[in-house]
Amino acid sequence: MAREDTIIVGSVVGLIVLPAVIALAAYYITKNPHFRPLGITTEKLINADLESQSGTVIAEVTIGAGASPQSSQRDYSEALKTTFDRLGTDLRVDFLSKPNSSDITVTYIVGASRIGPYPIANAAAGVKAAVRAQRMAQSHNASDADN
Asked: How far apart are CA 47 and CA 32, in angstroms?
């Protein structure tokens, strides 16, 4: 009787756990976050460079090691986010440092497209292009979903 119960409990646990173990093994082999059990989040897709379907524009602000910024990173981030927010577009701001440079530049990334770099004083020049690219990518993704 105890042996029969152990087999039944073991079988039930195996049936519940086995799909998660297989998915986790597939994730470790392929590094594709879609295989990670219960782990698909926007953050995971961003880290895997699969964010193009999420509709977020990424602004990479590169600050050269020899640059003397006129504003703080927070100020740059808020200014960029406010601009994109007024155009109805989500924006994520990433800051990078670049050795052997004294420039501060902004590059807008939409899916696989890179718009820029623009000097920080002329960062607004790429905003409309980035918003258009984001909207085109979203409409393309929506039409792919309809087909």
From this structure: 11
Nearest by Cα to 56 from 44, 46, 66: 46
For all residues of the chain together, what is the average pLDDT?
A: 82
User: With the CA atoms of 127, 92, 121 and 75 taken in that order, what torsion angle do they form, in degrees rounded to the nearest 10?
Assistant: 130
Task: Note whether 58 and 129 are same-domain residues.
Answer: yes
- The reported pTM is 0.62
Q: Is the model's pLDDT at 4 over the cut of 80?
A: yes
- The residue segments making up the domain with residue 83 are 49-146
Taking residues 120-127, report their average pLDDT: 91
Q: In total, how many domains does the chain have?
A: 2
Give the whole-angstrom CA distance, residue 42 versus residue 36. 13
